[in-house]
Design brief:
Layout (H helix, E strand, L loop, with lengths): L19 E7 L4 E8 L1 H8 L5 H18 L7 E8 L5 E7 L3 E7 L2 H6 L8 E9 L7 E8 L3 H13 L3 E12 L2 E13 L4 H4 L22 H11 L3 H5 L5 H9 L5 E2 L3 E2 L1 E2 L5 H9 L3 H7 L6 E4 L6 E4 L10
Parallel strand pairs: 5-12
Antiparallel strand pairs: 1-2, 1-10, 1-11, 2-9, 3-4, 3-6, 4-5, 6-7, 8-9, 13-14
C-alpha cells in the first residue's frame, strides 16, 4: 500500500519565515535542499559595523551561504566560512554555531572598495569551510581557490571538487526601505542531487589536459532529473529571495509544485556573539609582559573591541597580570 504523505496549505504570512532556514525535498527529482530568509538578524550584524554598501552586500551573501551550509550540521557543532584574498575585501569571517547562532565581520581597504566593481571585491585567494563538531570528532576544512568568482560560484566549485555532489546555490542581498527606515535583507536557496545510485550522481570528470591529437573524449550527459532541479533553481530571481511577502514555502511551491515538494521543520537563526570578558581576559593573559604593557592606553586601561559584535571591553593592567607559577 502506498504511503500517504500529509499535505497542507502553503504558508504565506509576510515575513513569517524571516531569520529561518527551511529544509525541503523533491522526491521525483531526487533533490534536497534548504531555503533561507534573513531579516533583523542580518540587519543587526551589518548595521553595527556601518560598512560601505558593497561590503555589506558581500558579507550578507556570506552570512546567507553560511546559514544554508551550517544548518546541515547534525546535533551540535560549529561551521565557519572564511575568505583570505588580495582583493579590496581581504577577509570575510562568518561563524555558525548549531542550532542557529550567527556572527560575522569583514576586513577591507576602504579606498580600494570605493573604486572597485562588485565582481572585483574578493580578488584572488581562497575560501575555507571549517566544520568542528566538538570532542571525539575530527575537525574538517575544505578549501576553494578564489580567482575573481563570487561566493555562489565558489560554493559550486567546493561541492564539485570536495564533496562530488551536484549543487546549485542562489544568493541575494538588498536593503529594504519602509516608512523611512532601512533594513538589510538576504535570501538564498540551495539544491543538491542525491539519488540512491551513485552512478547517477557522478559529475563530469576533470579536464584530462593535453591529450594526443585526434583523441575522442567520451561525452558526459547530466541526469535529466538534476538538469530539471538545477534549472528551476537557476530561474529564481533576486526579488523572490528577499521579498518579505514571498515566503520560503511559497517560493518552493512556485519552483517545484508540479513535481511535489515537501518541507520540514525550520531552524531559527539569531545574531549571537560568543565573546565575553572571561574569554578576552584569558586571551590577554597569554601575551608577554612587554606586549601587555604596550597595550595600556593613555587612560591607564587596556581596551579590546570584539571584531564580530563591536562590543568594547576595558581591563586594568592588574587584571591581566600573569599568575605566579
Amino acid at each position: 500500500m502506498a504511503e500517504t504523505v500529509p499535505t497542507r496549505f502553503v504558508s504565506d504570512t509576510p515575513g513569517g519565515d524571516d531569520d529561518r532556514v527551511v529544509p525541503f525535498q523533491v522526491d521525483a527529482l531526487d533533490a534536497r535542499g534548504r531555503s533561507v530568509r534573513l531579516g533583523s538578524t542580518l540587519d543587526a550584524i551589518l548595521s553595527r559595523h556601518a560598512y560601505p554598501e558593497p561590503v555589506s552586500r558581500l558579507l550578507g551573501e556570506a552570512v546567507a551561504l553560511t546559514a544554508l551550509l551550517g544548518t546541515a550540521l547534525k546535533l551540535q557543532g560549529q561551521f565557519q566560512l572564511q575568505t583570505r584574498t588580495d582583493g579590496p575585501v581581504n577577509m570575510l569571517v562568518v561563524d555558525f554555531v548549531a542550532p542557529g547562532s550567527l556572527r560575522a565581520y569583514a576586513r577591507f581597504d576602504e579606498a580600494r572598495v570605493t573604486s572597485a566593481k562588485a565582481d572585483e571585491l574578493l580578488g584572488k585567494g581562497h575560501l575555507a569551510f571549517t566544520i568542528d563538531q566538538g570532542n571525539n570528532t575530527q575537525r574538517y576544512q575544505g578549501l576553494v581557490p578564489l580567482d575573481g568568482q563570487g561566493l555562489e560560484a565558489a560554493a559550486h566549485e567546493y561541492f564539485l571538487r570536495s564533496e562530488q555532489i551536484p549543487t546549485r546555490v542562489r544568493l541575494a542581498v538588498a536593503e529594504q526601505f519602509s516608512g523611512g527606515a532601512r533594513q538589510w535583507r538576504a535570501g538564498g536557496i540551495m539544491v543538491q542531487f542525491l539519488p540512491q545510485s551513485t552512478d547517477r550522481q557522478r559529475q563530469a570528470e576533470f579536464d584530462p589536459g593535453d591529450a594526443p591529437e585526434g583523441t575522442v573524449r567520451e561525452g558526459f550527459v547530466e541526469d535529466e532529473a538534476w538538469v530539471e532541479a538545477r534549472s528551476l533553481v537557476e530561474t529564481t530571481e533576486d526579488i523572490e529571495l528577499i521579498d518579505p511577502a514571498v515566503t520560503s514555502e511559497r517560493l518552493l511551491y512556485r519552483l517545484f509544485h508540479e513535481r511535489g515538494v515537501r518541507v520540514y521543520e525550520s531552524t531559527a537563526l539569531i545574531d549571537k556573539c560568543r565573546c565575553s570578558s572571561e574569554r578576552i581576559l584569558d586571551m590577554l593573559k597569554s601575551f608577554s609582559d612587554d606586549d601587555k604593557q604596550a597595550m595600556v592606553g593613555e587612560d591607564g586601561m587596556i581596551g579590546v573591541t570584539c571584531e564580530f559584535c563591536s562590543t568594547r571591553y576595558h581591563f586594568r593592567p592588574d587584571d591581566i597580570r600573569s599568575e605566579a607559577p
